[in-house]
Amino acid sequence: MFLKISFLFLTIFCCQFSFSQIEVTPTADSSVVIKKKKKKRASIDYSYLDPKKATIFALLPGLGQAYNKRYWKIPIIYGLGTYTVYSAVSAHKQYKYYSYSLDELNASGEGTILVEVDNKGTMAELSESQINQEKDIYKRQRDFNFILTLAIYGLQIVDASVDAHLLKFHNSENFLSLAPTVINHRENFSPGLSLSLNLR
Length: 200
What we know:
Elements: H1 2-18, E1 22-26, E2 32-36, H2 51-57, H3 63-67, H4 73-108, E3 112-116, E4 123-127, H5 128-169, E5 176-185, E6 188-197
């Protein structure tokens, strides 16, 4: 019963606000025309952008994108950066673990040593060559993720600079347009899409 009353109250409450956006205009023939008010999206003035400032701000990841008012790029930059840093740190920990295991194996003078091979606690007997192989795998993963982190950092600086250059000369947000087109290739017509850059 409580759910039915709550649902009824919520329906009446929503209907009250849904009708608040409707404008009723009487016409000469006494009929009623209902028009919905359209919210105009405020256009952003990009003329103040300075590409040098955007580049300097981008030295702190995401700040250049905030200067260019491209806020949606910030979570992408930090998400990718966090993932690659975390992967590099995890791979380095595994590399150090296998290095320590190799030292233990050499100190013991035996042919194999018991090593934890995954995060679930699974143990396995590994020889020196197998430990070296695992070490090399994690070393490559660590180095690759470290290089990837530097690449993301560099790309976000370039992105901020290029974005500021483009937006400064294009105050319209629609300077890139995508439209359907017909492609004519040796009198064979096929549908396609055209991407056009509108320069001022």
